[in-house]
Amino acid sequence: MEDVSNDEKDRYIHRDLSWLAFNERVLEEAGEAENPLFERARFLAIFCSNFDEFFMVRVAGLRRLMDAQYNRKDSYGYYPQDVYRQVRDKAKELSEKLYILYEKGLKPGLAEKKIFVRRMGDLNADQQKFVKRFFDSTLYPIITPMAIDQGHPFPVLASKTLAFAVHLLRKDTQRLAVIPVPQSIPRLVKLPSGKDEIEFILIDEIIRDNLKSFFRGYEITGTSLFRLIRDSELLVDEEFSPNLLESIEAEIKKRPRAKVVQLTMEKTCPEPLLDAVMEAADFLKEEVTLIEGEMDLTYLFQLVSQAGTASLLYPAHVSKKAAEGNIFDRIKEEDFILHMPYQSFQPTVDFIRTASVDPDVLAIKMTLYRASEDSEIVAALKMAAKNRKQVTVLVEIKARFDEERNIGWARQLEEAGCYVIYGIAGMKIHSKIALVVRREENRTRRYVHLSTGNYNEKTARVYTDIGYFTANEDFARDISDVFNVISGYSQPARWKRVISSPYDLREYFFEMIDKEIEFQQKYKNGFIFAKMNALEDTKMIDKLYAASREGVKIHLIVRGICVLVPGVPGLSENITVRSIVGRYLEHSRIFLFNNNSEFRVFLSSADWMSRNLDRRIELLFEIHRQELKDQLRFVLDNTWKDNQRSRMLLPQRTYSYRKAEEDKFTAQEFFIEHYA
Q1: Which domain holds residue 94?
Q2: Is 430 an annotated catalytic residue?
Q3: 301 and 393 share a domain?
Q4: Which domain CATH number covers 655?
């Protein structure tokens, strides 16, 4: 066996660089000619949205460490300044790729379909009149120019705000002003056009053409659109916070004043104006991103929805509906699973909605991590409380970027009469669990739903997830106990059917991996097959490396971050890693252990990340019914077969497309047909 370096840099890919590699795969999908045009536009917008979040969280975290002069290596062997430098270089490279792809790929493709985002100089007479009326009636009344001087400091601009910086001259005195682009109206405006064309214009383009309207008596000597991203991490001392809800709300209010971590300006920006904005934003000039083209391409989400051209999207897919009938009768008959979005999420909604009006239901308990804006499930919970059922809801108010929405849900649920738990200090509740207690024939029966994904009707249409329904009494007792741990001071034991973090989930996985090592040593059939969103925990990776060195074959489907380096002789030559970026976001977590050919399969809310294993309450649960085990093995095997949307992680730490010219197989399209 070859000697293997113990240097962390040789053993792991840095998580931030791996995250950027994932977003690069998203960007590649925007350039795939095989994808429908509007889907390519969506991928490009998703890339931009992800990119923003990366700066708001990961880059912001690195800047905090550097500002604090933190000078220790992380678990991947890097000092903060080393990672920061590499991240900035890679981000610059991806930003350049983004605009090349947009200008040379997507924009010509849209023009070919007679879809245009116009500049003011492109407009015909009727369109100019339309834009003038729109500016006078809508934009001008709501825009407020802001002077910057001794009495007017640089305005508090929220993260992701677009604004114009304007240099003005009067009586040999130069002044600076800022005009934020309104966020209260859609950024994209549809223009009147011929029946064969679909034309738009951005409101910032309209504002640019009318800047003089705001500065009468001044000469405009320079203008530039700019956009800033701020540190968006919430810094709450949860252990000593007397009221977690109020502490989170207070931190949210600080976000508009947080440190700027990215500043983007137009390449045409005059140097004096660039200097003025950079100084006002307290940002390093050498790190300013200069772009040539439209800023913030997330507006493509609006373009796709407003253009309304179905032929440029993936063919419509309607999830298969489950059999009709009472949901409790169906669960009582036998355990079953649903594979979203190929199968309908509706039974999950029906589970809570039916419980809310069923006179025999006594109580509902569930966790909410992310819910949709017009959530039917939240509405059903409020209805249940009004119908005098005991309703307990854990609303995780620390769900990143959903804090305000979740606080709103929590208050509404409380007003409706639900007992609401706001989370646990120092811990996120990431489990997806629901429990219904029902009176039946002089006894109570408990019904359980567990899932790999959120109780969110909107994301259930585009995320692949597995939901599991059971009335098994062992499961019911375990889940009841889980709620007691969450809501009170009960100490968890090792339960019969579920395993939880942060208590014993990592240790349980280690036990399962060690068993595969034993089976490999005795019978040469050690095999692990796992599907997840991210693999980042170095302790788990070291355990997988140990299994690989013993000959255990390991197949990993990891959509996003993967810190493990596969295929390295003497370290990971028996590990293969694949990633799928496609029509749907691969979100399900499935773990299979061969167990000497009597395979065991588990579902979980947890990825193999340190935060999931150490700082969140997550659940892992085993599927025992053979038919369901076979169904999940079927999902894993066919996902692994994908040779169109799948990429393989190479020992060189790069991803390579698995593009077959013959016998083409796209897993997601296969599942659409399979469940039809």
Answers
A1: 1-110
A2: yes
A3: no
A4: 3.30.870.10
Q: Measuring CA to CA, how many Å separate 598 from each of 239, 409, 626?
A: 45, 44, 10
Say how far apart CA 403 and CA 397 lie, in whole Å: 5
In a domain, 322, yes or no: no
Distance of alpha carbon 224 from the chain centroid: 31
pLDDT in tens, 124-145: 999 999 999 999 999 999 999 9
Measured distance CA(12)–CA(64) in Å, rounded: 23
Would the pLDDT of 196 be above 70?
yes
Q: Which of 430, 449, 555, 587 is catalytic?
A: 430
Last residue of a domain, one of 473, 494, 515: 494
CATH number of domain containing 100: 1.20.58.310
DSSP code per residue over 516-549: HHHHHHHHS--EEEEEES-B--HHHHHHHHHHHH
Model pLDDT for residues 463-518, shown as the tens digit of each residue = 999 999 999 999 999 999 888 887 766 565 667 899 998 888 999 999 999 999 99
Instruction: Answer yes or no: do 441 and 530 share one domain.
Output: no
Q: Are 455 and 394 in contact (CB under 8 A)?
A: no
Is the pTM higher than 0.90? yes
Phi-psi region of 650 (alpha: psi -120 to 50; beta: other; left: phi over 0): beta
Dihedral sign of CA atoms 622, 628, 629, 634 in order: negative
Q: Each residue of 415-468: pLDDT tens digit?
A: 999 998 887 777 788 899 999 999 998 899 999 999 999 999 999 999 999 999
Number of domains in the chain: 4
Domain boundary among 316, 337, 356: 316
